[in-house]
Amino acid sequence: QVQLVESGGGVVQPRTSLRLSCAASKFTFRNYGVHWVRQAPGKGLEWLAVISYDGTKTYYADSVEGRFTISRDNSKNTLYLEMNSLRPEDTAVYYCAKDRGGWGKYGMDVWGQGTTVSVSS
Amino acid sequence: QSALTQPASVSGSPGQSISISCTGTGSDVGGYNVVSWYQQHPAKAPKLIIYEVNKRPSGVSNRFSGSKSGNTASLTISGLQPDDEADYYCCSYAGGGVVFGGGTKVTVL
Description:
The complex is a heterodimer of chains A (about 120) and B (about 110). Chain A is globular and about 40 Å long. In chain A, the strands form two sheets. In chain A, strands 2, 4, 5, 6, 9, 10 and 11 form a seven-stranded mixed β-sheet that branches. In chain A, strands 1-3-8-7 form a four-stranded antiparallel β-sheet, with no helix packed on it. In chain A, strand 5 and strand 6 form a beta hairpin. Chain A starts with a strand and ends with a strand. Chain A contains no helices and eleven strands. Chain A is mostly beta strands. Chain B has about 110 residues and is an all-beta fold. In chain B, strand 7 and strand 8 form a beta hairpin. The N and C termini of chain B lie far apart (about 35 Å). Classes of the chains: A mainly beta (about 120), B mainly beta (about 110). At the A-B interface, strand 5 and strand 10 of A face strand 3, strand 7 and strand 8 of B.
């Protein structure tokens, strides 16, 4: 079935970097926009970033703009999130989610299971 | 990019109908007909239940319905069932990215 699988989470120290990956399967990945969304412990969903189907357009939440970079490799059916200058408040479960359309605004119809990032000294 | 405003909690008895509001601005909810709603059970990934204000994905019960008036969108759950107890999030396109609401915990009494 249509699936997204995140990886790359872990425990890291503040001010370090981490790269998350999201592998897509059983759908035509290159046709759809894809998002990163996170959820801090006991908190709500926070949208982080979206990338268009062809990678030409990216948008970020103010909270991560300049620190996080979203990218994709359509030849590998994989989405990435490069996270720099990590802070304790970045501790969360990170989800990737497929959009229903190519430009990332029509609703997220497929979600991964999430990968946990913990930022602590 | 301010979060959309949802009530923290809503409750109802089995069989009843409840509604959850989601208030934004003319730059998000009021400016576009691309509001979506998500259901999240504890320790699970969110699930899309409404997209483009009032459309249901295949397989989602018709007990879930959505609407919008001005800057406020609403999710209605009719015939409340025990499995409807979950957190619900609205989300709106905001001219580039999207923005979520703070979430509403639905309790089935």
